[in-house]
């Protein structure tokens, strides 16, 4: 009876009222909020765009997307001024707190995992110190090879020499007789680096993508200035076509200056009306040879290359050639018709701005360009795939991109 009475009492209790809380639209991204806060802080689209390494049209698109998602106008725009609406004012402080809390969480996480990031930074330090001391190019080349010699070649990966249309190269693959379908142009500021040095990262890239990797030993400056490296890259690419690999089945990739060389190759293919590759993979690209780079953050581990020394390397490569020529500066080029591309960069890399600007320019010409950012400072952090989680994750995503676009 007590139980029945309890049931009757419960049945007469008023039902609990549950007030559904409105959820934020799933499509709102951090970049939308960062764009809004930057404009609200500056009350000027030009200054906010420069602060975020974006073009003004791209910044405007992000603001308009955020306004559509929240269903309110956040900013009043006129010819001469930008003002916050009441809705924008209501969002601003909350967005700032949200971004600040997130940044604090990321900072704490990075400090916990800082040992691995510091290990990556220490690996670069001897080379970095040498560059800062004003070492000559021959010393720089030797130091680059020493750096690569300390990296690990994945087990089970084979390496064989290849004559790629008259260009000496190495083929790196998990399966010895697998024909190369990924042409990778190594970094080294156009004056250093080699196919031999790239073997460890090439092996990891082969495992991640399932592709055979072709790494040409293109000619280096200052002995062979522009366009020698571009000519060698073109010969290696056309060799892949001539040996039976269809253009749509080829991925062209590059790291650092090698990524810039990739864009030079694509512009040359476009100029000569040759078929474009199926997809493009750019790791920490250096594509602006005018020297427009931001100073490194003193709180970050030192990057691989002092950005101010890039002037010297760029001058050796250009040998008086105009750095704004679209063949060497994709940031001034008509990029229409280029294949889908994935760009990856570290947030603490002084050259990260190049990745941002290249992505926005490619998109403005209708290119399917995607940028992935990782919370690391080391330039071309992918080299440290054997111990740095962000590097391993980046290579896995690169592999997924290559397989997805190929499919």
Helix/strand/pairing category: alpha/beta
Estimated share of beta-strand residues = 5-15%
Annotation field: number of helices: 13
Low-confidence segments: 1-19, 295-304
Total E-strand runs: 10
Sheet with the most strands, sense and barrel status? 8 strands, mixed
Order of helices and strands: HHHHEEHHHEEEHEHEHEHEHEH
Task: Provide the descriptors you would attach to this structure in a database record.
single chain; 407 residues; alpha/beta; two-stranded antiparallel ribbon; 13 helices; 10 strands; globular; disordered N terminus
Descriptive report:
- The protein has 407 residues and is of the alpha/beta class.
- 45% of the residues lie in helices and 13% in strands.
- The strands form two sheets. It has an eight-stranded mixed β-sheet with strand order 3-4-6-5-7-8-9-10, sandwiched between helices.
- Strand 8, helix 11 and strand 9 form a beta-alpha-beta unit.
- The longest helix has 27 residues.
- The N terminus is likely disordered.
Describe the SSE topology:
Blueprint: H1 2-11, H2 30-42, H3 45-51, H4 56-70, E1 75-77, E2 82-84, H5 86-112, H6 114-132, H7 137-149, E3 158-164, E4 167-173, E5 180-185, H8 199-209, E6 212-216, H9 228-242, E7 251-255, H10 257-271, E8 279-283, H11 310-318, E9 341-346, H12 352-364, E10 369-374, H13 389-406
Parallel strand pairs: 5-6, 5-7, 7-8, 8-9, 9-10
Antiparallel strand pairs: 1-2, 3-4, 4-6
Question: Summed up, what is this model?
Answer:
This protein is α/β, with parallel strands linked by helices and 407 residues long.
């Amino acid at each position: 009876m007590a139980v029945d009475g309890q049931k009757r009492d419960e049945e007469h209790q008023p039902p609990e009222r549950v007030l559904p809380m409105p959820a934020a639209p799933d499509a709102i991204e951090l970049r939308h909020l960062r764009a809004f806060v930057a404009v609200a802080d500056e009350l000027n689209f030009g200054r906010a765009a420069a602060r975020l390494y974006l073009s003004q049209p791209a910044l405007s698109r992000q603001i308009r997307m955020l306004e559509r998602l929240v269903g309110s106008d956040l900013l009043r725009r006129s010819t001469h001024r930008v003002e916050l609406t009441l809705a924008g004012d209501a969002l601003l402080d909350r967005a700032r707190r949200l971004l600040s809390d997130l940044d604090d969480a990321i900072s704490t996480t990075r400090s916990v995992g800082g040992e691995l990031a510091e290990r990556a930074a220490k690996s670069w330090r001897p080379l970095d110190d040498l560059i800062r001391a004003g070492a000559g190019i021959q010393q720089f080349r030797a130091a680059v090879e020493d750096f690569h010699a300390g990296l690990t070649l994945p087990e089970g990966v084979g390496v064989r020499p290849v004559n790629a249309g008259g260009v000496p190269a190495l083929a790196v693959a998990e399966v010895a007789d697998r024909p190369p379908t990924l042409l990778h142009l190594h970094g080294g500021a156009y004056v250093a680096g080699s196919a031999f040095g790239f073997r460890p990262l090439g092996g990891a890239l082969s495992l991640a993508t399932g592709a055979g990797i072709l790494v040409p030993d293109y000619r280096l400056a200052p002995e062979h200035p522009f366009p020698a490296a571009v000519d060698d890259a073109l010969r290696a690419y056309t060799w892949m076509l001539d040996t039976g690999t269809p253009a749509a089945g080829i991925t062209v990739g590059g790291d650092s200056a090698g990524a810039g060389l990739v864009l030079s190759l694509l512009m040359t293919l476009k100029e000569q009306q040759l078929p474009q590759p199926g997809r493009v993979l750019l790791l920490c690209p250096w594509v602006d040879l005018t020297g427009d780079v931001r100073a490194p953050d003193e709180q970050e581990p030192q990057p691989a290359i002092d950005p101010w020394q890039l002037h010297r390397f760029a001058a050796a490569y250009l040998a008086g050639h105009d750095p704004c020529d679209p063949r060497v500066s994709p940031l001034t080029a008509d990029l229409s018709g280029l294949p889908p591309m994935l760009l990856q960069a570290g947030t603490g890399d002084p050259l990260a701005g190049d990745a941002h600007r290249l992505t926005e320019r490619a998109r403005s010409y209708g290119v399917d360009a995607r940028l992935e950012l990782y919370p690391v400072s080391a330039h071309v952090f992918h080299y440290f795939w054997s111990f740095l989680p962000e590097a391993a994750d980046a290579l896995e995503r690169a592999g997924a991109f290559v397989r997805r676009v190929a499919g």
